[in-house]
Amino acid sequence: MAVAALTARRQILTNIIIQKKQNKNLTWEEIGKTIHRSPLWTASACLGQNSMDEPSAKKLVSCLEIIDPTDAVQTLCAPPIKGQTDFSILCQDPVIARLQEINYVYGLALKEIINEKFGDGIMSAVDFTMDVQKVADPNGDRVEVTMSGKFLPYKKW
Questions:
Q1: One of 54, 112, 124, 142 is an active-site residue; which one?
Q2: Is there a contact between 3 and 81 (Cβ–Cβ < 8 Å)?
Q3: What are phi and psi of 5, to 5 degrees?
Q4: Is 124 a catalytic residue?
């Protein structure tokens, strides 16, 4: 399938998924439990950034009662073009802007610490998990983000 066609189908399906999620008053946690995946990964896949396996896609389509299940499952299972998004949203949304700011301020320091502890390499975003938790604090609730990626040393040849 052509990249443009898949991108368009994914965007339409994403809009349908978000609408169905809202109409059914579901959380990403509830949807994730239904398809046996983490809420963060589930949201990412539903937003078109990860591909689902067929059993997960079928469970999602059933849970949300999507009208054209065959097309939806096929679209959810297709390898995505990662990073396809409306960049104007990324520049304007305060949550995303703060996450980018964290990377700008701490990115080089994180790289230094990773290289110091592991050597010359990177943290995988392929063999990767992430979790978000709400942590109660008397001075205001805290957002706790935990990222875990496999270390991949750079190959020397």
A1: 124
A2: yes
A3: -65, -45
A4: yes
- Which of 29, 54, 101, 144 is the catalytic position? 101
Q: What is the pLDDT of residues 111-136, one digit of tens each?
A: 999 999 999 999 999 999 999 999 99
Sign of CA dihedral 21, 23, 26, 27: positive
- Enter the pTM of the model: 0.81
- Residue 98 annotated as catalytic: yes
Q: Are 77 and 69 in contact (CB under 8 A)?
A: no
Cα–Cα distance for residue pair 131/11, rounded to 1 Å:
25
Domain ranges in the chain are: 3-77, 87-153
Residue 89 banded pLDDT, cuts 50, 70, 90: low
Q: CATH number of the domain at 87-153, please?
A: 3.30.1160.10
User: Which fold does the domain 3-77 belong to in CATH?
Assistant: 434 Repressor (Amino-terminal Domain) (1.10.260)
